[in-house]
Amino acid sequence: xxxxxxxxxxxxxxxxxxxxxxxxxxxxxxxxxxxxxxxxxxxxxxxxxxxxxxxxxxxxxxxxxxxxxxxxxxxxxxxxxxxxxxxxxxxxxxxxxxxxxxxxxxxxxxxxxxxxxxxxxxxxxxxxxxxxxxxxxxxxxxxxxxxxxxxxxxxxxxxxxxxxxxxxxxxxxxxxxxxxxxxxxxxxxxxxxxxxx
Length: 197
Description:
Layout: H1 2-48, E1 49-53, E2 68-72, E3 86-90, E4 101-108, E5 113-117, E6 120-123, E7 146-149, E8 154-158, E9 176-177, E10 181-190, E11 194-195
Antiparallel strand pairs: 1-2, 2-10, 3-4, 3-10, 4-8, 5-6, 5-7, 8-9, 10-11
């Protein structure tokens, strides 16, 4: 009888050990999954996508105040930014040691001359104003003509809501260098999904 009880106790102990091992294995498995997910999320947001909140209405009607947008960091890996692209970039007038991100539309490319006369934008000495179908309303006339010469490897940015946009026209450093462009905006995902072009 004593042997039988001892045998039952040993069986109980043996049966309990696998449960403990199974729980620990399950726990370690979950930790691995969570760590892998965190590493993937970090890699995505560091090297592939940029997530940005739009605090102002400077890009209305293309992007509304409060929208959240996704940009693709690899858009310009094999090609150059183009006129009309909406991009996330480091604001060139940010205080020393700070990085502030803006979202605007590329108007001027490297080597372009830009003249803003009255309510119109003119490129490279053209007599015809730049066609800008993305604008919601005409720009208020500038009191004096503005002239800009975009340096090589730099871009001139403007908001789509020209009358309420702090953009390259008003900045101390008018141009955004190529390496300050973080990503091309692809779409808005909050509060509703829509493609950005």
